[in-house]
């Protein structure tokens, strides 16, 4: 199994085989918490206008996402697991658009298998890929706003790569260290309304969930994320 780490939208376009599109802070962590809150369907799209149109097609649906890290006007939630866990989403369709994560999913047009990656279910992703045993795996760290290196996404990629290669590394210290690097923005009082400290802790709960989120391409050009329990 060949495993490579790529970055940003261009990396998603280059990905092939099994592609894991990684967005730890916060898109795909939020997606995991949405399913944990009872969501039955999760649709990823790349534009707010498309999200609003999709909502009209699903009777019980909510919009979640961000631009410039903040909740989009007219959306039900921002890109925040803290907001999600406060609500019972049983039976709901969740429609998400973000700057990095969802755009990465849609850009990965050459991938045969498409997964959404985060720290909260990294172990499940490793186990799934070990069983699938594809010839190649592309781990795409989407980065901060899909344009700057993000330690949390690169770390998640390294964790998955090490797991696939059978390396018994302990990444606990590196995960905890995110608080003083990429995660310190969650502790800035100016960001508390849209990036609260609890988001940091929820997004760094390594292996909290034992399921994967598999991307399935829709005829309308968007992506369904399907929860598969392991």
Structural commentary:
The protein is α/β, with parallel strands linked by helices and 230 residues long. Helix content is 33%, strand content 25%. Helix 1 packs parallel to helix 5. 48% of the residues are buried.
Brief summary:
This protein is an alpha/beta fold and 230 residues long. It has one domain: Alpha-Beta Complex (putative 2-phosphosulfolactate phosphatase).
Give the key terms:
single chain; 230 residues; alpha/beta; putative 2-phosphosulfolactate phosphatase; ten-stranded mixed sheet; 9 helices; globular
Number of helices: 9
CATH class, please? Alpha Beta
Classified in CATH, the superfamily is ComB-like
What is the chain-wise order of helices and strands? EHEHEHEEHEHEHEHHHEE
Structural class: alpha/beta
The fold-level CATH name is putative 2-phosphosulfolactate phosphatase
Strand content: 15-25%
Task: State the CATH architecture.
Answer: Alpha-Beta Complex
What is the arithmetic mean of pLDDT?
97
Task: Give the overall silhouette.
Answer: globular
Major beta sheet, strand line-up: 1-8-2-7-9-10-3-6-4-5
- Sheet of most strands: 10 strands, mixed
Number of self-contained structural domains:
1
Strand count: 10
Distance between the termini: 21 Å
- Percent range for helical residues? 25-40%
What's the Cα radius of gyration? 16 Å
């Amino acid at each position: 199994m060949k495993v490579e780490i790529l970055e940003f939208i261009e990396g998603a376009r280059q990905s092939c085989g099994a592609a894991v599109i990684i967005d730890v802070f916060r898109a795909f962590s939020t997606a995991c918490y949405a399913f944990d809150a009872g969501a039955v369907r999760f649709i990823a799209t790349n534009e707010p206008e498309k999200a609003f149109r999709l909502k009209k097609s699903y009777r019980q649906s909510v919009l979640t996402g961000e631009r410039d890290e903040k909740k989009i006007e007219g959306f039900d939630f921002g890109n925040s697991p803290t907001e999600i866990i406060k609500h019972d989403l049983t039976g709901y369709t969740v429609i998400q658009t973000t700057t990095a994560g969802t755009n990465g999913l849609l850009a990965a047009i050459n991938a045969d298998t498409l997964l959404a990656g985060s720290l909260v279910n990294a172990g499940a992703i490793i186990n799934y890929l070990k069983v699938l045993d594809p010839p190649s795996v592309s781990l795409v760290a989407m980065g901060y706003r899909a344009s700057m290196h993000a330690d949390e996404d690169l770390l998640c990629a390294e964790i998955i790569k090490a797991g696939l290669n059978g390396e018994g590394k302990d990444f606990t210290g590196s995960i905890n260290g995110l608080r003083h690097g990429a995660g310190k923005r969650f502790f800035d009082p100016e960001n508390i309304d849209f990036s609260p400290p609890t988001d940091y802790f929820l997004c760094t709960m390594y292996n909290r969930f034992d399921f994967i989120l598999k991307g399935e391409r829709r005829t309308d050009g968007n992506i369904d994320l399907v929860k598969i329990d392991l």
